[in-house]
């Protein structure tokens, strides 16, 4: 288990690098949801997602322990975060990306001086390659979620929420591999256990939901949800026990609900978020939370979206 002390230590380690992100609210969103909604804006975090928190804590630790090279397997936010912090610390990073990686993501990694290696199209191909590369060059592989330093780093989002939103009742968090929610659960349940933490997954990527139901790690086959940051087949060996112990509930949202929430936040609130962030707003907007008149914090986990592809993800019908 990760402890609250590790989350406090992570906060010290990362505070000079990361932004304390804003809380954004909208009366209109609150009235649609029947709760006071506060959005925690990690979409305006350095590198465009919360992933920089865990990556900074972990890469700093490995460098302290003597690493002179790091690798990651990711086309997305984790790869960008590892490239960014490695560049700041002056260690080379190689990010193993899929052959069909989008140009915008490639450019972001290159912009942080990350080396790129293309490999296959699935994480089953990328992961062993990133591990192998790390061993070849005496480096360290930086995992995306199943690591105590990563989890503790992500947990700093929870500390900020408790400070920024006085008397918050419920915190709503997207779940991919579970690093973000495990960190937030540690931060919140070990300081203010009465604050509820609710996880959200797409219906199409409900692996943690199923795992919780059966009481053990359960995997799903590949998923094509538009929430690409949540396309994970099963929760982690380290994240699942934390989720299983502490989470209050997990809710599922449909692809259409994700689209509606993303569109609402963009059009009405002028905030560009990615589908993986929109799941928490969708859960609040479509009454999945089963609560009213509460203070609810929805984590907007990231804002990295290919705007050329965004239009086709807009909902077909108006909500009225
Ligand atoms: C990685 C990611 C998630 C999921 O985080 P986990 O720690 O894997 O559960 C959610 N949203 C965005 C934007 C992400 O990049």
UniProtKB/TrEMBL annotation:
Summary of the function given for this chain in its UniProt record: Catalyzes the anaerobic formation of alpha-ketobutyrate and ammonia from threonine in a two-step reaction. The first step involved a dehydration of threonine and a production of enamine intermediates (aminocrotonate), which tautomerizes to its imine form (iminobutyrate). Both intermediates are unstable and short-lived. The second step is the nonenzymatic hydrolysis of the enamine/imine intermediates to form 2-ketobutyrate and free ammonia. In the low water environment of the cell, the second step is accelerated by RidA.
Signal sequence annotation: none
Domain (Tryptophan synthase beta chain-like PALP) ranges: 17-302
Family the UniProt entry places it in: Belongs to the serine/threonine dehydratase family.
Catalyzed reactions per annotation: L-threonine = 2-oxobutanoate + NH4(+)
Protein name: threonine ammonia-lyase
Record EC number: 4.3.1.19
One GO MF term attached to the UniProt entry: ATP binding
One biological process term in Gene Ontology: D-serine biosynthetic process
Record InterPro entries: Ser/Thr_deHydtase_PyrdxlP-BS, TrpB-like_PALP, TrpB-like_PALP_sf
Cofactor(s) this protein cannot do without: Ca(2+); Mg(2+); pyridoxal 5'-phosphate; Mn(2+)
Keywords linked to the UniProt accession: Lyase, Magnesium, Pyridoxal phosphate
């Amino acid at each position: 288990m990760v402890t609250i002390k590790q989350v406090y230590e992570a906060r010290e380690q990362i505070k000079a690098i990361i932004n304390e992100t804003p809380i954004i609210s909208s009366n209109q969103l609150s009235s649609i949801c029947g709760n006071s909604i506060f959005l925690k804006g990690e979409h305006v975090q350095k590198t465009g997602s919360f992933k920089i928190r865990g990556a900074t804590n972990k890469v700093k630790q490995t460098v302290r322990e003597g690493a002179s090279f790091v690798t990651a397997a990711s086309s997305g936010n984790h790869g960008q975060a590892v490239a960014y912090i490695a560049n700041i610390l002056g260690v080379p990073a190689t990010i193993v990306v899929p052959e069909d990686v989008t140009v915008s993501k490639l450019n972001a990694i290159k912009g942080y001086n990350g080396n790129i290696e293309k490999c296959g199209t699935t994480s089953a191909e990328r992961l062993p390659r990133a591990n192998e590369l790390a061993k070849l060059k005496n480096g360290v592989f930086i995992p995306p979620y199943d690591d105590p330093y990563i989890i503790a780093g992500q947990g700093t989002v929870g500390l900020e929420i408790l400070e920024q939103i006085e008397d918050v009742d419920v915190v709503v968090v997207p779940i991919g591999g579970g690093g973000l929610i495990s960190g937030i659960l540690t931060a919140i349940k070990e300081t203010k256990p009465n604050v509820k933490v609710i996880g959200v997954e797409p219906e199409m990527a409900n692996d943690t939901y199923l795992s919780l139901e059966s009481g053990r790690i359960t995997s799903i086959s590949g998923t094509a949800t538009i929430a690409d940051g949540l396309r994970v087949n099963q929760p982690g060996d380290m994240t699942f026990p934390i989720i299983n112990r502490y989470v209050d509930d997990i809710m599922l949202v449909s692809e259409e609900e994700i689209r509606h929430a993303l569109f609402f936040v963009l059009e009405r609130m002028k905030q560009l978020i990615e589908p993986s962030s929109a799941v928490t707003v969708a859960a609040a907007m479509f009454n999945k939370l089963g609560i009213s008149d509460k203070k609810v914090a929805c984590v907007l986990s990231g804002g990295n979206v290919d705007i050329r592809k965004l239009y086709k993800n807009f909902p077909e019908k108006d909500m009225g």
